[in-house]
Each structure stands twice: as structure tokens, then as C-alpha cells.
Write the C-alpha cells for this entry.
Amino acid sequence: MSGALHGAVPTSDRVWTVGTAPGIFPFFSHGIALFRRPLAFLKSLPAYGDVVRIRLGPLPAWVVCRPELVHRVLVDTRTFDKGGPQYDRLRSLMGDGLVTSRQETHRRQRRLLQPCFQPSQVAAYTALMGEESVAVRDSWRPGERVDVSAAMMALTTRVTSRVLLSDTLDETTSAELRECLATVVRGLFVRTVVPLDAPFRVPLPANRRYSQALRRLHAVVEATVAQRRRSAPRDDLLGTLLAAERGEGEGPPITGREVHDHLITLLLTGVETTALCLASAFSLLAGHPEAERRVHAEVDAVLGGRPPTAGELPRLVHTRSVVTETLRHSPPGWLFTRVTTEETELAGCRLPRGATVLYSPYLLHHDPASFPDPDRFRPERWLARETAAVPHGAMLPFAAGNRKCVGDAFAVAEATVALATIAGRRRLRHLPGPVAPPRPAVTLGPRSLVMTCEPRPLAAHDLPKDR
């Protein structure tokens, strides 16, 4: 019977359950449900088991619903490698970069890029993040309607391109890059949940826009790399890649193709996810005045209207808690896949070699067993006295194990700096009427959020006492 439990198998001191998601048309219904109502579909799955079998197109896939099991999948990278429909599509876009590479090449790539995201380097980028945040903030006028989604994309594109490429991109190219990234990301999700190529070969307007944006994105990166090869070396991430291409430093030289793939990967993963986190944070704060008041009191007391320095970031406790709670409540990376490299067992479920395994940070973050009242936005969850109650592995905005996002600290710092800088002088209010829930694509967050900008005069307040 559809939805019936297929087994109850002990693993350590716990009995796990394995089930199948119900569906009238098993070849297509789960892919359609995942596309049409993805968050509701995911949240329905734990009722059928700890590991739940679904179908994406003609092939089965298994969704892992419990943090302990997801943790096992993420740390056992030899058995559960990057792969599945999602990464097959991403690999055709990003090539063999840090996000999409197989485990055997990942270690070398991470060793090359990790130094660029060490804490000392992230601290050095704080002033740059503040400069770009001030530029966005001061471009808004009181009473103006602001496309917050577009503004945050502009902000993170500028920050990311300066870190990767210094000032190589002019404003026109940067704006074009931003539009290309947005178009590509919008088109990726449907290509992930519908693992068939035929529908995307039809010359429909959406398919043409996707193809054109993809070609232009690669062309911009190629032209940028070619320009930099002709110029003096610079101390940025592209400079690190080009030095590795010349055989300088440790390890064997990398290829020009690898330089290109790393840049595409870091642009795609470093721009939209942080922009969506920021747009979600401003939207959530507008609907939660007490949390907003705490942030305003904190940034007034600590910063007095200016951007934070690296040394002041630890003092922005409430601001950082808002960022963390936004990543829990509305994680931009909400659904990921892995593929088994050999036949294995997970929670008593036998998985064949090549099986697609899915896990969802959104699902884990909205599990009431881990986060009481999970749909409620409560930044105080992340104050010291409550954080200890969060189960290990329940909070996964950046994955875990040796494939954890290389730029996690950078992204949190960028979001914290931007939120504190903008909230120091501006307040964003929702327009009259209901607020549309964000519709997931390959990432999750508001893509057309328009709000009204209000000035916020400086006023030093005592921080409210924690409840």
C-alpha cells in the first residue's frame, strides 16, 4: 500500500522506519508535487518514514528526513558523493568546480581555495562589505519603494566580484552579470526536478532566456580571465587561481578550464544565496517588530550609524542571531542530492549503487522535535542559553563534513555587516496587503520583494533584557 512502512530496522539504539510517499502516478507525480508545492511536499514526508522513497521521473530517489541520518550521509563522502539530478545539471553549468566535483578531486580544489576564506581573510573583507552596504543604503530615499531583492543582488554581486576579481568588472558588466545569474538560477530548479532533456530543447521563451543568459555568463567570465592574464598580477581570488595555473605555489598546476569553472561556481554560489538571506531577513524583521527593535537598539549602541569593523562583529549578538534564524527559517539552500558510489544500507534501507539520495535543510530546520514552533521566526533561539538545546546536525544551512561550504563564514559575515549597516539608518516596511511567500527555485527566498524605505534617525537605547 502506498505510504506503508516497508521496514523497522534498529540502528544503534534507535529503530528507523522506511516508507514510500503516496502518489497516483508514480512515474511523474512526485516530481510534479516537488515542483508545484515543494515545501509542503517535503514537510509531508516524515509521516511516511525516516527515509522515504519517491520518484523523480522514471527513477526512484530516497529522501532522508532525520538529522542523524543526514549527518551520516554528509560525513561519509566516499559512499554518498556529490551527484544526482541536481548536480548533473549543475555540473553542466559549473563544470568541475568545488561544489560539483567528485570526491577524488575535491580535496585538491579545497586546499587551493580554502586560504582565501580563512578567518583573517574574511576579517580583511569586512571594510569592503561595509562600503558596498553603505552605497546601497544611501541610494534609497525616504518614502521610496525599493526592490529589496534586486538591491541585495546588486550588493552581493559587487562584494563577490570585488573579492574574486578586484575592480576588473565595470558597472555595466556587473549589472549584466547580475541579470545573467538571476536568470540561470531561476531556470535550474525545474531542470533538476524534471530529469528529462526534451522539454528544455523546445524553443520556448523561458528556454531561450536561460540559454542566452548561460552563454553570456560564460562569455563574461572568459573575457575577464583573458583580460587579467594580460595584466599585472593582483591579490584577489582570481590572482590566486592564475598563479596556480602558472604552477606557482604548492601542488600541480591547474588548467584554464579549472580557473573558469571555479569562478563560475563561486559567482553562482556566492551571490544569490546571501542576497536571498538578506531579503528574507528584512522581510521577516518587518513582520516581527520586537526582533527589529532589538537589532536597532544594538546597532545604535555599538555602531552609531556606521558600518561595523571586524572587531565589532562579535558584539552584534542580536544582529547575528537574526541572520542565523533567517538561515534556519528560510534557508537559501533548501534541497540537495547525493549519489551512492556503491551498494549500501541507510537506516535498514538497501540502496543500490548509483541511487539518488536527497536531504533538505528546510525540512530539518522545520522539524518541531529539533525546533519548537518551527514556523515562527524567533532569533532568540540562537542566544547562548537556547543554542545548547539544538540537536547535533539539525541546523545545516551550509552542509557538513569535508564538503561543507568553503565560504560559510564569509557569507555570515557579509549578511551581518549588510544587515547592521542598512538597519543603522533605514527601516524597510512591507507594502499594504498580504506578503507573498517565497517560491523555491534551485534556491529559496524572495525574488521580487518590494518594500517602502523609511529613515531611521540615530537613537541610542539600552538593549532590552533577554526574555
Summary: The longest strand covers residues 5-11. The two ends are 48 Å apart (CA to CA). Residues 366 and 374 are 5 Å apart (CA to CA).
